[in-house]
Design goal:
21% strand; 120 residues; single chain; alpha/beta; Rossmann fold; globular
Length: 120
């Protein structure tokens, strides 16, 4: 079992698509450990003020919060993904481009709706 980093926009897209977390992830990566950074948690907490349907208790109860020492959330995710070889659940185009440039993988929500693992 590996780990997966969750980005705020990736989590929001997964919830908006109505995907079942366990079923969707098992089809692309098995049964991973969920990881979020403090920056992602802060972003999700802010988003939940206007969108109460984000199921944050599910995410927070099943995730480990980790630190990277980076200031910007995307830099946190990129640094950890590169160091640990963990894919990032995201739909952010800029972050996906940076991940691929660094040899990292990501998981995206497709229009199916389903998840797809993209590796360099």
């Amino acid at each position: 079992m590996g780990a997966i980093l969750i980005d705020a926009c990736g989590w929001t897209s997964l919830i908006d698509a109505g995907l079942n977390l366990d079923i969707a992830l098992s089809s692309v990566i098995g049964n991973p450990e969920l990881k979020i950074t403090k920056g992602v948690k802060s972003e999700l907490d802010r988003l939940s003020e206007s969108n109460g349907r984000l199921l944050l208790s599910l995410l927070y109860n099943r995730s480990e919060i980790i630190e990277s020492g980076e200031r910007h959330t995307d830099d946190e995710l990129l640094s950890i993904s590169s160091r640990m070889s963990w894919p990032v659940l995201t739909v952010d185009r800029g972050l996906k481009k940076r991940l691929i440039e660094r040899g990292c993988s990501y998981i995206e929500v497709t229009s199916g709706p389903s998840l797809r693992l993209v590796s360099p």
